[in-house]
Predict the structure of Prephenate dehydratase.
Amino acid sequence: MNIGYLGPVGTFSYQVAHRAFPEEQHTAYTTISECLDAVAANEIDVCLVPFENAIEGTVNVTLDYLYQNDVPPIQAEYILPISQNIMVNKQRSSDWQEATTILSHPQGLAQCHDYLTKNFPHIKREAVSSTAFAAEYVSTHPDEKTLAIAPLFAAEHYDLDVVRANAQGNMHNETRFIALSNRKLAITDDPIETKTTLLLKLPDNDSGTLHTMLSTFAWRNINMSKIESRPTKTRLGQYFFHIDLDVGADNRLLDNAMVEISLLGGTVKVLGSYDVYKIK
Amino acid sequence: MNIGYLGPVGTFSYQVAHRAFPEEQHTAYTTISECLDAVAANEIDVCLVPFENAIEGTVNVTLDYLYQNDVPPIQAEYILPISQNIMVNKQRSSDWQEATTILSHPQGLAQCHDYLTKNFPHIKREAVSSTAFAAEYVSTHPDEKTLAIAPLFAAEHYDLDVVRANAQGNMHNETRFIALSNRKLAITDDPIETKTTLLLKLPDNDSGTLHTMLSTFAWRNINMSKIESRPTKTRLGQYFFHIDLDVGADNRLLDNAMVEISLLGGTVKVLGSYDVYKIK
């Protein structure tokens, strides 16, 4: 199989792709949208993209794409522990504290916000497309006083010095990655849970009817483990809801709840019923 | 009164501060957190910060601050129509299409994402602290092939050429700004609505109890106009909810609902009951 992931080499998605599918072929994509485009067009068998971080919340690019486009179902979810580390070119190890710029993905910068504000209040924070790009840039620009925030394996891959490990504010940081595919995945690990993810749009975008819609699950004792809203991008105050339910596929009560929501005027898009795995 | 806003001169917050409080003194702050810190410490009388954009959704920095800190109540909300425009230094008007870098606030870049992808697929998008900073940078660096995405009044203020007006993807774009203050504000305009905003944390962070909590409003015919979740930043899967209700202050039914939520184990923080105004 060909596994597409949010590249380049050295990103968290790269790490998940290699841990979850070590024997398969891997293809890096520059953006989340391009990776999702590729699996929708059957150019790859599986698309692995980040979906939610414990600190920064949902990855809006992924959620908005899933709402707006037709994609293969989610077949599995992987939870990866996250550490963000500050690293420098080895030729700059002695004067790294004089750095004037620090590069990372916006979520890397956000996760290290408290550390930077306290220790480097005047450093220029520059957002780039990935943590791996930041590490690669620092490795190829020894002449610049620039640091990168990236995972530890990026330091190994690009031969950089880690000058501050675990610079992220929150020690329990984790990120969820989803695997979308038209194929059932044969996974031998033990899952930690099973769930169904759906997107719900209310009739007339009336948040007041949300309670009625949620009643269709509550009456049937279907537990909801997550609910969040996102703007539909049409006008202020119009939302859709991203809901996780603690049930798997082929659940008769869930089927009945879906029919009832439809009768009540709601629109449901099921993204998949799947197992969740923890990456150590 | 002294009105603090998210600066520098020329931001959307600046525009709201001057339209809503034309006769008062205005103080610019570099970040949303500093502006909120200042009103919490009574250094300013009113703090005006962005809270939600129609396309990008809630301004998470603002919401997270309100969840984590004690602040004066929200006294009013202002809705401002948003246009994003591409502008260039007047010395570069002839060769602006050769620009290699475009600067804006991350939301400015996100709102013009489709236009840039179509027309400038290879331009380097650089996130800076505000649209006004982007405009100021372009005005002071005529030697660089750099564009800015900013509101029209920033082009006037920094004497730049607007080369593409309304480059944002969505024509109905608007942003909500909230005014926090310990003082009641004397506003003569007619409000378009009245609402109460609260933050709800469920007992044991169990999303399954959300339905029960929302029932306390539904049974009393208190309409909910918005609900969204945000991670509590403690660990993956723990959220608080930001809820808007279509009721004003001194509502006996609302008081009863709050008591009941507390008895059910929920924690509620009321951010304020206030009127909403539209800025033309």
Summary: The domain at 193-274 of chain B is CATH 3.30.70.260 (Alpha-Beta Plaits).
